[in-house]
Amino acid sequence: MNGRGTALELLRPDSLEAATAALEDGGGSVALAGGTELVPLLRDRIVEADVLVDVRAVVPRGVQGTRIGAATTLGELEVDPQIPRALQDACRLAASPQLRAMGTIGGNLLQATRCWYWRLRYPCWLHGGDRCFARAGQHREHAVLANSPCASAHPSDPAAALLALGAKVRTNRRTVELAELYRLPTDDDRRMTTLEPGELILELDVPAPEASTYLKAMDRRRYAFALVGVAAARFAGATRIALSGMAPIPWLLDGEAALDSATPLPGNAYKLEIARALIRRAVTEVSA
Ligand SMILES: Cc1cc2nc3c(=O)[nH]c(=O)nc-3n(C[C@H](O)[C@H](O)[C@H](O)COP(=O)(O)OP(=O)(O)OC[C@H]3O[C@@H](n4cnc5c(N)ncnc54)[C@H](O)[C@@H]3O)c2cc1C
Ligand code: SF4
Predict the structure, then answer these.
(1) How far is the C-alpha of 174 from the C-alpha of 246, rounded, in Å?
(2) Which residues pair with 216 in a beta bridge?
(3) 10-to-7, 28, 50, 66, 96 alpha-carbon distances in Å
(4) Where are the alpha helices (DSSP H) in the chain?
(5) Model confidence over 155-193: pLDDT tens digits?
(6) Measuring from atom 6 of ligand 2, which residue has the nearest CA?
(7) DSSP assignment of 40-85, as one string?
(8) Contacts of 20 (CB under 8 A, 6+ apart)
(9) Ligand 2, residues 138, 141, 152: which to mutate, most atoms within 8 A of Cβ?
(10) 151 alpha carbon to ligand 1 midpoint, in Å?
(11) CB 71 within 8 A of CB 60
């Protein structure tokens, strides 16, 4: 059943064309991969759908050189020797082994915020309302960069690694830099991705760096979202840095000094101290 009390239909298309057509057919269909993110959102009625389109048979899975199929699980990526260290580590430090065995890299990049006000369906700005409850309320885990009007923090560890690695995303419509998959929400358009209805992520192309790493500060040593995640990758002697848990979308940082422009909230300025320490450690690691 969906939130409207009608039966939820499950489609398992056997071609990309059929999957795309099903997803473009009216507003009530949504792509399903491992379901670790989507199913809870359906259960909690944050996402409403009439039709689930299981895309796992039509989205590529596996690693070939620098190419990663979007249906590859985090569990597969963390042990594949072809995968750069930063992405391996980001996958290994994410979620739990069970979730990593089901969750795909495509679904991970498209996961929604963990902001508890949003997950509890408070009528906040991101849900179409006119205020951010986190700013005046509980925001210890929230964003310190680009955090107005929405202070949510992007939860994906692999997204930060892929951003530092300069990954490209191939969809059934276009090929773009990973950064172009994301957008900061505005009053007119509160989406955080640029993915259009019917658009499926098919593949990632991840250049091989000279060295890379991903460091994650979290409340527990295992099974916790990033308070601060720092990815660093060195290409031709230059180091790219990207962050998770620090902004509403995965954030490419132009060096540690760029943190001087952060706008922390009263309860989360501690993140800047952690980020500075992790950035220095990550840069040292990839320079060695
Ligand atoms: C308890 C818990 C802890 C977690 N901890 C972490 C963590 O520490 N770090 C971290 O990075 N992540 C974490 N996650 C997130 C987890 O990694 C994701 O839920 C998972 O990777 C999503 O993949 P999926 O295949 O299950 O996606 P699904 O749930 O199937 O889909 C997620 C979204 O992506 C869309 N989608 C899926 N595949 C495609 C595609 N190919 N093209 C277009 N749209 C697509 C779906 O429509 C849906 O909107 C956690 C999740 C849970 C539940
Ligand atoms: S941080 Fe964003 S998602 Fe959370 S309450 Fe504020 S507007 Fe809503």
Answers:
(1) 28
(2) 229
(3) 10, 12, 9, 33, 26
(4) 16-24, 38-43, 74-79, 85-92, 97-102, 105-109, 116-119, 133-136, 157-164, 270-287
(5) 999 999 999 999 999 999 999 999 999 999 999 999 999
(6) 132
(7) HHHHTTSS--SEEEE-TTTS--SEETTEEETT-BHHHHHH-TTS-H
(8) 172, 198, 200
(9) 152
(10) 21
(11) yes
Q: Helices H, strands E: what count in the chain?
A: 10, 12
Do residues 36 and 175 lie in contact, with contact meaning Cβ atoms separated by under 8 Å? no
Residue 230 amino acid letter: V
Confidence at 221, pLDDT banded by 50, 70, 90? confident
User: pLDDT-derived band of residue 288, with 50, 70 and 90 as boundaries?
Assistant: confident
> What's the predicted TM-score (pTM) here?
0.97
User: Which residue has the CA at smallest separation from atom 35 of ligand 1?
Assistant: 107
State the Cα–Cα distance between residues 158 and 41, nearest whole angstrom.
21
Please identify which residue in the block is written with the tokens 């943190």: 259
Distant-in-sequence, close-in-space partners of 68: CB < 8 Å, separation ≥ 6: 62, 77, 83, 105, 203, 204, 205, 206
Which atom from ligand 2 is nearest to the alpha carbon of 127? Answer: 8
Using CA atoms, how far apart are residues 192 and 186, in angstroms rounded to an integer? 9
